[in-house]
Amino acid sequence: MHVFDDVPILNKSALFELLSQRLDNQEKTLSQIPNPSLLHDAPRAAKKIADAIINKRKITVVGDYDVDGISSTAIMVDFFKQIPYPLQTIIPNRFNDGYGVSPGVLNRVDADIVITVDNGITAIEAAKLCMDRGIDLIITDHHTPLETLPEAYAIVNPKLSKCDYPFKDICGAQVAWLLLGLVKKELSLAIDMKSFLDILCIAVIADIMPLKNINRALVKEGLSVLMRSQRPSSVIIRDFLNKSSITSEDIAFQIAPRINSAGRLEDASIALEFLTATTTNKAYTQFEKLNSLNEQRRETETQTANEALELAQEEGNVIVVAKEGWHEGVIGIVASRLVEHFQKPAIVLSINNGVAKGSARSIGNIDIYELIKQNSVFLNNFGGHKMAAGLGLEEENIDSFKNAINKSASKLDSSDFLPLDSIMGVLPSQEIDFELLELLGNFEPYGEANSRPLFLIRDAQIVEIKYFGKDKSHTKIIIRQFVHDRKSIELILFKRAIKMPNEKKLTCSYRVMKNEFNSAVSTQLIINKIYNY
Predict the structure, then answer these.
(1) Domain extent at residue 243
(2) Is the whole model's pTM more than 0.90, yes or no?
(3) Are 475 and 496 in contact (CB under 8 A)?
(4) One domain, residues 407 and 435
(5) Angle subtended at Cα 88 by Cα 83 and Cα 94, rounded to the nearest 5 degrees
(6) Binning pLDDT at 50, 70 and 90, where does residue 174 land?
(7) One domain, residues 428 and 375
């Protein structure tokens, strides 16, 4: 049983104060987005792209198969369509091509200029090939650079040590969008850069960028563009979610997994065709494909997660599990599941013909990229950032790598392992009303670095437990929070059916959500974690 002695009892004004402090008065507006020309090499890259357009040279964009990479590519496609100018796009296939602008992908390219989006910072071999073939390579990326950089015409990445862009935590789609803003200026085009924000905000949310500073402004504005945009994919997203306003959580839990499922299971071009569809009919057809791939992804993921949980040993500070034949497309999500379960960073490896490919996910303040880098002597390749990374190694090196990374992690402070979504306080039942929903709405968008507040219920009396859903796999728990409460409140626990505990008491953390059903709005309390069960 956890002790929550220092958790304060809150009213609405105390909660307002706490949430305001979180944002440090650093609310930015779109007009405060730093000038894209501060990005190292961006003016040089923009000039090169503009010249290529004027001189009718061939341009190819190479993207990536996750939401950020697909969104970056979609923004590029839309921008060039509005000029209009022909553009070849390639999104590598996870299974046949591997990650990024590889030599294999370059074999399919017939271009004078190659622009990478959301990849390329480690593409040393590909850069050499471009040079040999007389192709100008422009790399736009946001992943952490290695000591040696590719020899490219231009590298636009806020994480370069020589880059003066004041806000580093931006995703690949933001880098591409900022660069296109400079191309627009070079060519004096009448393109509205705000028209891309519906796609851009999906990338920022899905790539788990901290929702503060300019990211906050972009996501806020992007969600409102999404609500009114006539882009066919945005129309379909609105129809699918069927809500009066769309939140960042709707994107994170409903839309991003569907866009991601294409690259995870089949080919990311399905998702790219959804985002760039020119008719709602086409967008609908692609979205249906994404829906069924997402169902498949769920099934594969559940099976893999169950096997991974069986293999995982609690000892050690970093969970490392590996198995032959696990589906490469779901190992990242499975790593996230293990992190949730063990409250430790996790690395999940899929072995194929003696070679292991892996995905790593982190927790709290642990920089998983740094830990992997310290032990890269055992690896063939790796890349990523603080919270998520990818890696490849020979099967025979797995045990040595596992021991080494655990040794490195043992030197870290135990407080770094604590999840950052700490509980804000206890809310008396009478404070849970529509006014509270409105107050919480003022601090959206919620996400990384501004998580939706968690509240505590401690030793509450359980009045009744009910089950619902197709296979009765969700639980509704009716409780009285304090002995003297007249009002009972209802909590929802998704994907788990729990039985009445002997002492009929409940201690849990929960989030307050707005529930819209048949145009009726209600407050919904969703359990995050049960502590005494």
Answers:
(1) 33-291
(2) no
(3) yes
(4) no
(5) 135
(6) very high
(7) no
pLDDT band at 2 (very low <50, low <70, confident <90, very high): very low
Peptide bond into 84 cis (omega under 30): yes
Query: How remote is the C-alpha of 164 from its chain's centroid?
Result: 25
Q: How many domains does the chain have?
A: 3
- Provide CB contacts within 8 A for 86, sequence distance 6+: 58, 59, 80
- 436: in domain: yes
CA dist 62 and 117 (Å) reads 6
> Would you state the pLDDT for residue 27?
72
Query: How far apart, in whole angstroms, are the C-alpha atoms of residue 224 and residue 215?
Result: 14
3-state helix, strand and coil shares in percent for the chain, rounded to the nearest 5: 40, 20, 35
Query: Is the backbone peptide bond immediately before 445 cis, with ω within 30 degrees of 0?
Result: yes
256 assigned to some structural domain: yes
Same domain, 42 and 190: yes
298 belongs to a structural domain: no
Which residue, 416, 442, 459, sits at the end of a domain? Answer: 416
What span, in angstroms and rounded, lies between the C-alpha atoms of 457 and 128? 59
Whether 2 is in a domain gets the answer no
pLDDT digits (tens, 9 = 90+) for 348-391: 999 999 999 999 999 988 999 999 999 999 999 998 888 889 99
Q: What angle do CA 364, 366, 372 make, to 5 degrees?
A: 145
Question: Which SS3 state, helix, strand or coil, does residue 73 take?
Answer: helix
Q: Are 11 and 200 in contact (CB under 8 A)?
A: no
Nearest to 30 by CA among 219, 171, 249: 219
Task: Classify strands 489-493 and 505-517 as parallel, antiparallel or unpaired.
Answer: unpaired
Q: What is the mean pLDDT of the chain?
A: 93
Nearest Cα neighbor of 96 from 304, 268, 256 is 268
Looking at residue 90, its pLDDT comes to: 96
Same domain, 252 and 270: yes
Question: 382 with 233, same domain?
Answer: no
Could you tell me if 80 and 194 lie in one domain?
A: yes
Asked if residue 441 and residue 404 are part of one domain, the reply reads: no
Q: Tokens at residue 438, please? A: 């409105």
Number of other residues whose CB lies within 10 A of the CB of residue 441:
11
CATH number of the domain encompassing residue 386: 3.10.310.30
Where is the domain boundary, 260, 291, 322? 291
Beta-bridge mates of residue 422? none
Same domain, 397 and 443: no
Tokens of 303: 């099976």
To 10 degrees, the CA torsion angle through 95, 96, 100, 106? -170
Q: Rounded to an integer, what distance in angstroms lies between the CA atom of residue 284 and that of residue 450?
A: 33
Query: Which segments of 442-501 does DSSP mark as H helices, in order?
Result: none
The C-alpha atoms of residue 356 and residue 203 are separated, in whole angstroms, by 28
- Strand ordering across the sheet containing 136-140: 88-90, 59-62, 113-117, 136-140, 154-156
Q: List, in order, residues 6 or more apart from 299 with CB less than 8 Å away.
A: none
